[in-house]
Design a protein that fits this description.
The chain has 11 helices and 7 strands. By secondary structure, it is α/β, with parallel strands linked by helices. It has 2 domains: 187 residues, Rossmann fold; 54 residues. The protein has a 7-stranded mixed β-sheet. A hairpin with a 4-residue loop joins strand 1 and strand 2. Helix 2 crosses helix 3, helix 9 crosses helix 10 and helix 9 packs parallel to helix 11. The chain is elongated, with a radius of gyration of 22 Å.
Length: 278
């Protein structure tokens, strides 16, 4: 019997993933969290644009930068929800703000967490809690469906439970939805529930746990063209106003929208045609 148990134990050890050692947080400024097995992978080159190139979002930019600077200096700061129109620079702003804070010489780390990995957030917080570094935990495109239970894991970040959120961790999320769930789903649950006010309160109140709400709204044509002109100036591409205007407006018309993302896509095409690297 003992030999059989030893064989079973040996087999289970082979199946179990070897836990990765705690990462060297001095090795990089940003990390991506992965599970199975749990590990923080350093990011050598962060995909971001300079904060000065993010136009038409001045209030959100200044508010988030000030909040992040205070946190990096060890002062009180709020978790932030960046919500609103797609393609208007929500995730770009988070990465740009991190770059601006690092440029100030402050040792702030950025850790990206995927929405589907939220159930593992407790293990991630335990790992970050033991570090002397300060972290912005970033979840892009956060939203929940009607039967999605991942939002309960998020409360560990926002409220911290009995142990409290680690003092050295701040949480930033982006979403197209202010309440992190579709409006039609909210109305659906309210209309079919015995107690409508309680039916969606638990999920809707999740967004209330963010101290900062920063809204992003669709841009107009002038702002759209200004974004492209800013990219051209930053990368040394010369183009006359009439040509830029005609091409950029046609580009937006084919996409059916104007946004910072569409502006960057047009600029990428323009730079490629001009033989300029970006």
């Amino acid at each position: 019997m003992s030999e059989a148990l030893e064989r079973i134990a040996t087999a289970l050890e082979r199946l179990a993933p070897t836990p990765h050692p705690a990462p060297d947080f001095d090795a990089a400024d940003a990390f991506v969290w992965h599970v199975a097995p749990d590990r923080l992978c350093p990011v050598a080159d962060i995909n971001r644009v300079d904060i000065d190139l993010l136009l038409d979002i001045d209030r959100a930019r200044d508010t988030l930068l000030d909040n992040t600077l205070r946190f990096a200096r060890g002062l009180p700061a709020n978790n932030a929800l960046l919500w609103g129109a797609r393609g208007m620079g929500k995730s770009s702003l988070v990465k740009a703000v991190h770059g601006a804070v690092r440029a100030e010489g402050l040792p702030l780390k950025l850790v990206e967490l995927q929405r589907e990995d939220l159930p593992s957030v407790g293990r991630l917080l335990a790992l970050l809690r033991d570090s002397r570094a300060r972290f912005v935990l970033f979840c892009d495109d956060l939203s929940f469906s009607g039967d999605d239970q991942h939002y309960k894991s998020l409360k560990a970040v926002l409220d911290g439970g009995i142990e409290g959120r680690p003092e050295n961790v701040l949480f930033y999320a982006t979403s197209n939805r202010r309440h992190l769930m579709p409006r039609d789903m909210i109305e659906n649950e309210r209309s079919s529930a015995i107690n409508p006010s309680e039916a969606v309160e638990e999920k809707v109140s999740l967004s209330d746990r963010f101290g900062l709400w920063l809204g992003f709204h669709p841009c107009g044509q002038d702002e759209y063209l200004a974004m492209i002109r800013g990219y051209c100036a930053a990368h040394g591409i010369e183009i006359d106003d009439d040509t830029l205007r005609a091409e950029a407006i046609e580009w937006a018309a084919t996409r059916g929208a104007r946004s910072g993302r569409v502006a960057w896509q047009y600029f990428t095409d323009l730079a490629g045609r001009r033989g300029v690297g970006i």
